[in-house]
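User: I'm designing a mutation panel for Aldose 1-epimerase and want to avoid disrupting the core. Could you give me a predicted structure to guide residue selection? Please restate the sequence first so the numbering is unambiguous.

Assistant: Good idea. Sequence first, for numbering, then the predicted C-alpha cells:
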Amino acid sequence: MTGDLTIQHHHAGELPDGRAVDRWVFGTAGSVTAEVLSLGARLQSLHAPDRDGRRANVVLGGTSTGDLLGEAAYFGATVGRYGNRIAGGQLPLDGTVHRLAAQPNGHTLHGGPDGFATRVWNGTEVRDGDRVGVRLELHSPDGDQGFPGAVDVSVTYLLDRAGELTISYEGVTDAPTVVNLTNHAYFNLGGEGSGMVLDHLLQVAADQYLPVDRELIPFGPPEPVVDTPFDLTAPTGLGGRVSAAHPQIWLAGDGYDHNWVLRPGEGLRQAATLLHPGSGRRLDCLTTEPGLQVYTGNHFDGRLTGPGGSPYRRYAGIALETQHFPDSPHFPDYPSTVLRPGERYRSTTVYRLSVE
C-alpha cells in the first residue's frame, strides 16, 4: 500500500457533564484508516478496502457520545482496570479481600460500572517511523471502583501503511493491585451494519478453553477444545458453531462468550484469524497475552443503530479481546494479573488487515 500517512485531530463533542471529547483520524487515504476517541480511549472506526478496493468501516460504533455512555459503552473501548469478570465483586489480594463496584448481577465486569471505558483520556499525537497514531493516558486513583492502589496507564494506537494496527498498553502502580486491559472492538469484515458475522470464518490458536457457569464465570481449569464447538484450530464458519447443541453454547445465549487459552510462546504470536469470504477481508490478531475472549454479540437486540443507519441485531459483530483470563484473582493456577510497585504492566496486540 502506498500513500502518505496522515493524522488529524478534531473536537468530537461534549458529554452531558461538560467533558470535551477529542477525535484522532489517522492512516493512509484510500487504504486503512482508524478513528480513535478520547472517551474510553476507543477505536471508533476502522476503514479498510475489500478485494476490489472498496472501503468500509469494519468495527461497530455508536452514533453519539450518548450512545458511548449507554448501549455502546464498550464498543471499541479500552476496558479496565480489569477487563472481563471478577466474581462477586470481590478481589482477594495479599490476604485482604477488596470489595469492588459491581454491575446489577453482583459481579464486576470490565472494571465496574464506571470503568475506564467511561473516562476521558488525555491524548497526544504520535509518529513512530513508518507508523502514526495517538497515545492516551489515564490516572486511576487508589480506591477507584474499589481497586487498591493508584494506577497510571497508557494505550498507544499506531497504524502503518500495510494496514497493521498496533495497540500497546503500559501501566504502573503505587500499591499492589490487578491490571488486565483489553480493547473491546466488535468486528464485521463485511462492513459495519451489513448484517450478521455468521458467514465469517474464525481460526484460534488454542487447544483449550475455559468453560463457564450460568453467570459466565469460569468454574475451573481449562478443558480441551477437541470434539467440541470450541475447536477452532482450523478456519471454521461461525454459523454452524453458534447453533451447535452444546450446553456451553446455550449458557452464553446461543454463541460464544468464552476465553480461549492461547498456545504458549514468547512475545507477539498468532492468536486468531478472521476471514470474510464475500469481501476477501482478512483480520489477523497477534498478541503477547495468554488468552482470547471471543464474543459473538449474542445479546444485541436492535436497540442500537450504528453510524451507517442499520440497527445492530444478534451476531452483528464479533469481539476478539486479547487479555488475561476472566476471574483470575480467584484462580491461583491462572496467569497472574497482579501488578506491584516497581513493576511495569506491558501488553501488545496487533490487528493486521489484508485481503485475499
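For picking mutation sites, this is relevant: The mean pLDDT is 96. DSSP finds two helices and 30 strands in the chain.
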